Amino acid sequence: MSHHCLLFDRVHYRYPDGCEALRGVTLRLTHGEKAALVGANGTGKSTLLLHAAGLLLPTQGEVAVGGVGLTPRTLPSVRQTVGVVFQNPDNQLFMPTVEEDVAFGPANMGLTPDEIEQRVAAALEAVGASHLRKKSPYRLSGGQKRSVAIATVLSMEPAVLVLDEPTSDLDPRARRQTIELLRRFDHTMLVATHDLEMAAELCPRTIILRDGTVAADGPTTELFRDTALLEACALEQPCSMRR
Ligand SMILES: Nc1ncnc2c1ncn2[C@@H]1O[C@H](COP(=O)(O)OP(=O)(O)O)[C@@H](O)[C@H]1O
Ligand SMILES: [Mg+2]
Questions:
Q1: How many CA atoms lie within 13 A of 164 on its CB side?
Q2: How far is the CA of 40 from the centre of ligand 2 (A)?
Q3: Which one of the ligands is nearest to 86 CA?
Q4: Which residues line ligand 1 (CB under 6 A)?
Q5: Domain coordinates of the chain in residue numbers?
Q6: Structure confidence at residue 80 (pLDDT)
Q7: Mean pLDDT, consecutive 10-residue segments, the chain of 243 residues?
Q8: Would you list the DSSP string of the chain?
Q9: Mutate to test the pocket of ligand 1, among 15, 210, 214 (most ligand atoms within 8 A of CB)
Q10: Of 42, 114, 188, 204, which residue is the least packed, with the fewest Cβ within 10 Å?
Q11: What is the pLDDT, as a whole number, of residue 3?
């Protein structure tokens, strides 16, 4: 089986305080698919992404990446297969310079200095941030931080990329650059977002969450035309689809 595929089988997750954030989520993402994960606040998008990245384990049901079921034993390998870009880049950037942040993952993978340098150069190039490599991440603009956060994940060459709200807090230009950047990737990609315009532009497929369950899963244009469905899920139809 391709290692670029992601499977959720009747996944439940209950936080230690008793909040049941996922209540039986089933979905399958195959090689090269780009899917948007949308839903009102608190419907479980971030919780689902944390499972995909192997940062949470289901309380019930199964998550598998590339056919490998997520268990405490398989977590280390799954974490190298799936790259996660957190909602807040400040949670991803913690080294004194951009290049050290981007080198951090490859260095942990035990690559040689030459290989690490190649990874860093390629990842920064891919996000258009080569000129920022000597800068401190703290001195970057919001859009630059987002690009560099994406580079820190790309440098590990993940098979699957999951992103949590990649366009939140970005001005229109930085948002546009981020969308164009993501569009160029041929990764299997799962993007949690409130930005339905971006979802419509970037992701042929959309999964709508409601109360920790999948309310709909299908072609983005079809789902976004269904105003009754969107309303039932507390979502607003993107302007570009209204006539
Ligand atoms: N660390 C946590 N502890 C307890 N409950 C949490 C925690 N994180 C999220 N939740 C709850 O889980 C549900 C889903 O949250 P989340 O996955 O963040 O949703 P979304 O990303 O769609 O806004 C919400 O009810 C939220 O309050
Ligand atoms: Mg969230």
A1: 20
A2: 9
A3: 2
A4: 15, 17, 19, 21, 39, 41-47
A5: 6-234
A6: 85
A7: 84 97 97 96 97 95 94 89 93 96 94 97 93 96 93 93 92 90 90 96 97 98 97 95 80
A8: --TT-EEEEEEEEE-TTS-EEEEEEEEEE-TT-EEEEE-STTSSHHHHHHHHTTSS--SEEEEEETTEEP-TTTHHHHHHHEEEE-SSGGGT--SSSHHHHHHHHHHHTT--HHHHHHHHHHHHHHTT-GGGTTS-GGGS-HHHHHHHHHHHHHTT--SEEEEESTTTT--HHHHHHHHHHHHH--SEEEEE-S-HHHHHHH-SEEEEEETTEEEEEEEHHHHHH-HHHHHHTT----GGG--
A9: 15
A10: 114
A11: 67
Report the phi/psi class of residue 62: left, alpha or beta, with left for phi > 0 and alpha for psi in -120 to 50.
beta
Q: How far apart are CA 177 and CA 144, in angstroms?
A: 10
The residue whose CA has the least distance to atom 26 of ligand 1 is 42
The residue whose CA is least distant from atom 7 of ligand 1 is: 15
The ligand minimizing its distance to the Cα of 38 is: 1
Please tell me the distance between residue 56's alpha carbon and the centre of ligand 1 in angstroms. 12
Angle at 109 between CA 103 and CA 113, to 5 degrees: 50
Ligand 1 pocket test target in 20, 23, 43 with most atoms within 8 Å of CB: 43
> What's the pLDDT score for residue 86?
94
Probe target for ligand 1 pocket from 8, 11, 17, 19, with the most ligand atoms within 8 Å of CB = 19
Tokens of 182: 């993501």
